Amino acid sequence: MRYRGLNMSFRIAAVMMIAVALVLVSAGCDDAGPATAPATRSADGPLRIALIPKAVNLEYWKSIHAGAIKAQRELEDVVVLWKGASRENDREQQIAIVENFVNARVSGIVIAPLDETALVRPLQEAVRAGIPVVIMDSDLRGEPGRDYVSYVATDNAAAGRRAARHMGELLGGRGRVIVMRYQVGSGSTALREDGFLAGLAECCPDVEVVSSDQYAGPTTETGMVKAENLLNRYPDVDGIFCACEPIAWGLVLALRNAGRAGRVKVVAFDPSSSMIEALQRGEVHGLVLQDPLTMGETAVRVMVEHLRGRPVESRIDTGSEIATLENMHDPLVRRLLRPPIEAYLR
């Protein structure tokens, strides 16, 4: 061989010089800091998008998941990693899920924050680690463009005002109304509740809001208990507004138990098989419908566009409609009442 004549000491020195060079290159990468680490894809794998809902047990979040799978099927080299808390009030579990995905070095995180404040720090840490964030469904008290790339959601304040106008029409412009709030820290439902109150004041000044500061909690059971207490306190109430499906179904059950289902006007957010049945029975008089399937699909597509270096919109409204007994069979309303999730979740 050509190098057989080199003496041993020269070969050892050459090996040591190469090793030193490799160490210096490695140190240079570390000095660059985590924010500059690539957050797109491994050399031999697809983009890995972590999708974190508020919880996994409600039909709404299943629709979000279905939309994300739709995007995954239609995009090239994209994998959606789905994981959420078991309950919509478990902030600690959602924070732990975020941290686990950061440690796993996913390409990006799409999340519906359980708490608009508590999730700020964990998501800021994800961004500092070079992992971009897209917020969906429920807002975050962070800085757009710095703490997250885009916000994909219903215009919740506008949807709340739409619900108020519908309630005003149901009551003929006068009556007594209760707003059953969801839980502290939930940005999306707070916007709906405040939008409803603002809309009612604008369109129906003769409608009296007798209670608007009571929180019903995250489940049907807590919603039912709170509804029973409010119905006992305000026996002559004419209408009740709920900003999300679990507590709305609890309200329907409480009204049935009190023998008042159908007599008290109920306007609420989001369908389920139980709420659709209550709409058909005349126990619910308006369901504000979001488009969670489109929301999940759009949020994933926005993240992929960002990771591939393309500009994205900072806020995207996925729209809303109101379902009533009269229009529930219209094609658009029917699709939002029963999103075709079976085509994507098997």
What global shape is seen? elongated
N- and C-termini, Cα separation: 62 Å
Range of strand content: 15-25%
Would you tell me the overall average pLDDT?
89
CATH architecture of the largest domain: 3-Layer(aba) Sandwich
Low-confidence parts: 1-42
What would your notes on this structure say?
The chain is of the alpha/beta class. The chain has 2 domains: about 45-155 and about 290-320, Rossmann fold, CATH 3.40.50.2300; about 155-290, 3-Layer(aba) Sandwich (Rossmann fold). About 45% of the residues lie in helices and about 15% in strands. It has 11 helices and 12 strands. Helix 4 links the parallel strand 3 (about 110) and strand 4. The longest helix is centred in the N-terminal third of the chain and has 24 residues, at about 10-30. The chain is elongated and about 60 Å long. Residues about 1-40 have low confidence and may be disordered.
